[in-house]
Amino acid sequence: MATGRPHRPATRSRGIPEATVARLPLYLRALTALSERSVPTVSSEELAGAAGVNSAKLRKDFSYLGSYGTRGVGYDVEYLVYQISRELGLTQDWPVVIVGIGNLGAALANYGGFASRGFRVVGLIDADPELAGRQVAGLTVLHSDELERVVEENGVSIGVIATPAGAAQQVCDRLVAAGVSSILNFAPSVLAVPDGVDVRKVDLSIELQILAFHEQRKAGENAAALPEPENGEVTPVEPPATAAVTRGRTDREGQPARPDGGPDSDGGTDSAPAVMPA
Amino acid sequence: MATGRPHRPATRSRGIPEATVARLPLYLRALTALSERSVPTVSSEELAGAAGVNSAKLRKDFSYLGSYGTRGVGYDVEYLVYQISRELGLTQDWPVVIVGIGNLGAALANYGGFASRGFRVVGLIDADPELAGRQVAGLTVLHSDELERVVEENGVSIGVIATPAGAAQQVCDRLVAAGVSSILNFAPSVLAVPDGVDVRKVDLSIELQILAFHEQRKAGENAAALPEPENGEVTPVEPPATAAVTRGRTDREGQPARPDGGPDSDGGTDSAPAVMPA
DNA sequence: GTATCTTTGTGCACGCGTTCACAAGGGCAT
DNA sequence: ATGCCCTTGTGAACGCGTGCACAAAGATAC
């Protein structure tokens, strides 16, 4: 998942919990599919199954929006689609700019999921003069100089950053200065923004690293469960050699020593050395 | 953030909280940057700033890994990089396959962030016979028929799905059957997997919809704060016409009526109609 | 009109995650 | 060696999110 990031005290005013907001698009997608199959009503149990969540959670989520169900029957699909769309703000048209038209930016520009839900790409922007003028996804790529103009002329409030990490903060600053107040950031960098600006981050590398963590633990479980040592002298759970062979992984070499002369917590227990990634 | 998804009771065994695991890659990135600048030590305050989190949270996160800091001084950068890398499993080599080499799949294949942290793309797979044989990011695209072979020969345990939604579940099933136990899913669909398989979802459309929700609320705040009505008859917070003009948005038309003959909760209060997205 | 059945909506309790605030601990100056 | 100062590590309190379990409410059959 893209990593969440708070920003405001939470969800204020009408007080729809952030966790619920994050699930609404999921429900909406499932409901849209039902709508296309002309299914008139759906129970919380069915819909929860389609969305991959617990039915109690779904009912509680909907209860924040109001009482849109009918006891003994379920929810009216069309009506619920409308209510959720409205709640999410999808009944409006949201002009979007994408900055950084590399592989990822081009992929985003071509992504059909945007247009289908009220999002309209109105500008593709790149710093490379070579790209300016090229056609991508039916739009002409503009040079960075045009960023402010495009944002202001189209009343853009949502910007997508798909530049390299080094350029992200600068692009972000310019977007914000031009009037953008919501940013979807694909660059692997932490963005500093003023109050009132929302940033959501999607980081492919982080997602993979989280998967690797769980994968490593799974591998460790298949081996004998080591007794837990006490007192901060942590015994690392290393995937045993058998697992490494089984799945064809290879460990690398080199390992920094503990900086001070203090006790090396890995002493004797960590037989699988490593080097830090670039 | 990419939307999280639980699956197992939480983080078991050595008990590093899931939320902490999700932040470790963030710390690692900041530490790597410091390492490249040859900074020897860093305080929790500095590092927290660079990672965009609270310093108390950072210290608590690190406390789950062990006592790696020095009071009065801070943390040794190199040593911490190593410890986090090891904890995340990045000291191993993780072969990865990417299925679905469209715009997004190609972008992922070219993404440098993979290789730099122990992830090695060993297979690009697509169902389109046209693509088979083409070179993408220095690798030859293989046809879907080869999926099982590539997974087994390389001992792949992490798979990336970048196919259209319709193909995702089938691809997922085949990956799992072939031995993959961690999946990063970019397709907008809910994947059903057996126990023991981890799925993380990255959904661009959902991220945008969450931004739209907050953006809509921001617009609503600038107008007069409506008094909250009681009794489930929810008065929608509609961005007033002034805001729409200011930012150049346009509302669409059409709105489903409430299914039963019951009270229309929007009666008189919701002047901004809408249509559901495709 | 009454009884029964189905499904919603929610009160409540529990657990995870965050934050505060401070004691413990190590360096450094004197 | 001693005392001061700085930063870590963590106990405790709080708040959010989840899931259970059930009462409320509408539909349906008779």
Write the layout of secondary structure elements.
Two copies of one chain form a homodimer.
Chain A: H1 18-36, E1 41-42, H2 44-51, H3 55-65, E2 69-70, E3 74-76, H4 77-88, E4 94-99, H5 103-110, H6 112-115, E5 119-126, E6 135-136, E7 139-143, H7 147-154, E8 158-161, H8 165-178, E9 182-185, E10 198-201, H9 204-222, H10 241-247
Parallel strand pairs in A: 4-5, 4-8, 5-7, 8-9, 9-10
Antiparallel strand pairs in A: 1-3, 2-3, 6-7
Helix pairs in contact in A: 1-2, 1-4, 2-3, 7-8
Chain B binds a DNA duplex (30 and 30 nucleotides) through residues 10, 17-20, 43-45, 54, 56-57, 59-60, 62-63, 67, 69-75, 232, 260.
What would you note in describing this structure?
Chains A, B: One of its GO terms (biological process) is response to redox state. 2 copies of one chain form a homodimer. By secondary structure, the first copy, chain A, is α/β, with parallel strands linked by helices. The first copy, chain A, folds into 3 domains: 18-88, Orthogonal Bundle (Arc Repressor Mutant, subunit A), CATH 1.10.10.10; 94-202, Rossmann fold, CATH 3.40.50.720; 206-247, no CATH class. Helix content of chain A is 40%, strand content 14%. The first copy, chain A, contains 10 helices and 10 strands. Chain A has helices at residues 18-36, 44-51, 55-65, 77-88, 103-110, 112-115, 147-154, 165-178, 204-222, 241-247; strands spanning 41-42, 69-70, 74-76, 94-99, 119-126, 135-136, 139-143, 158-161, 182-185, 198-201. In chain A, a hairpin with a 2-residue loop joins strand 6 and strand 7. The longest helix of chain A is centred in the N-terminal third of the chain and has 19 residues, at 18-36. Residues 1-13, 224-250 and 261-278 of chain A have low confidence and may be disordered. Chains A and B meet through helix 1, helix 4, strand 4, helix 5 and strand 9 of A and helix 1, helix 4, strand 4, helix 5 and strand 9 of B. Chain B binds a DNA duplex (30 and 30 nucleotides) through residues 10, 17-20, 43-45, 54, 56-57, 59-60, 62-63, 67, 69-75, 232, 260.
